[in-house]
Write a structure and sequence with these properties.
Elements: H1 3-6, E1 10-14, H2 18-31, E2 35-39, H3 42-51, E3 56-60, H4 68-77, E4 86-90, H5 95-103, E5 108-111, H6 116-126
Parallel strand pairs: 1-2, 1-3, 3-4, 4-5
Helix pairs in contact: 3-4
InterPro entries: Bact_response_regulator (IPR050595), CheY-like_superfamily (IPR011006), Sig_transdc_resp-reg_receiver (IPR001789)
Pfam family, one: Response_reg
Protein name: Response regulator
């Protein structure tokens, strides 16, 4: 997919940590994705999904109000994310937690701290940019 096509991609970033949110946004910009909606928690993310169509969701797990997995389950229950790939990023690296997320329907999972190349590879794979 060319950079021209990437400008039409819209990402929803759900991350309560400001530095992590800036890093994810920066990495998306480097990839060529510049249309980004960023929120602090799952509750805000649900509200944004009522008003916006997105192509990919990148969510933290541990957040106030509503965590990333609860957000995913609720958005799925409300049919707000049908066909939208979800990448969960988290400091949670316990095997059981990763399995729980993937079994719950999360498409892919990354452990913090994020590095550009693995992040880029996962986003490209999820958006079928390769």
């Amino acid at each position: 997919m060319s950079g021209k096509d990437l400008k039409n991609i819209k990402a929803l970033v759900i991350e309560d940590d400001e530095a992590s949110q800036r890093l994810v946004t920066k990495y998306l910009n480097i990839i060529g994705i510049t249309h980004i909606v960023a929120v602090q928690n799952g509750e805000e993310a649900l509200q944004k999904l009522y008003l916006n169509t997105v192509n990919i969701i990148i969510t933290d797990w541990c957040m106030p109000e509503m965590n990333g997995l609860d957000f995913f389950k609720e958005a799925k229950r409300q049919n707000l994310i049908e066909g939208i790939p979800v990448l969960m990023i988290s400091a949670e690296n316990e095997k059981e937690k990763v399995i729980e997320a993937l079994k719950g329907g999360i498409r892919d999972y990354m452990v913090k701290p994020l590095e550009l190349e693995p992040f880029k590879a996962k986003v490209s794979k999820l958006l079928k940019l390769e």
